Amino acid sequence: MGNVTDSAFTPLKESIPLRSALFKGIAVFTPAGDLVYCIDPQKQNRWHLQLCIFLQELLGLPEPPHFLVPCFTATIDRWQDPRTGVVRTFAEVYPFVSRQRALLSAVFGCSEGDWQIATPQATLCDPLVLASYRQQFPELWQNHDLVAQLEAIEPASPLQPVKRPTPIWFADQSHTMQGYVLRLFVSGGSTATEQMLKMLHQLLEEQLQQPYTLKVIDVRKHPEQAEADQVTATPTLLKVWPQPVRRVVGEVDDPTILMQLIR
């Protein structure tokens, strides 16, 4: 239901319930940091291509941005060792989006330390080649505060088409706002910050039965945003929408205080 966006670990963006089930997760980022992803318990193939089509639909692109694969992607596989019965996690992220590991960990419910940096082939991920697509896909170089999940839905029968789901949240100011828009201001990335983010998201999932987007902003990297929102201490949780604007400073993961903020 929620979306986590982040410019703290930069650029960034949702869904942090701890996931114990076996699944395969696929994430595709845009160069500006928007994120679309899929969590597939059936571990189907070709979700990278489906996510590119999803991006095309969400941003109104002329065609699917297949050039993002694999350079702007991450994949996670949670599987059970047949010999020991132990659930294991293999997570791989490409260098261009390795800075997004905190967000990926929040989205897929794993540890930031689980992510390994993939080594692309020499012929892939040439910055000049990727930049050549900017004129054709300018929307991908614009941050739309987008984090959207494409649900893994299978048709009931071969004759029944799959209905494409809508994004969890699309917080673009040019669209009519729905649900809640929250901003969490932090100072630097740390294990404590990651734990606070997970706890906060879990509270939002449990207490807020409406769509929301949570954007994490590192005041060290984005002091202008902190100044614009009059943030003088961290952590600060700001409810931007619906109005009136409200804020909590300090114990942002306190359920009682959180409910007072979102009412």
From TrEMBL:
It comes from the Bacteria. Gene3D superfamilies: Glutaredoxin. InterPro entries: KaiB-like, KaiB_domain, Thioredoxin-like_sf. SMART domains: KaiB. GO terms for biological process: rhythmic process. Pfam families: KaiB (PF07689). CDD domains: KaiB_like (cd02978). Residues 183-261 form the KaiB domain. This is Circadian clock protein KaiB. It comes from Leptolyngbya sp. NK1-12.
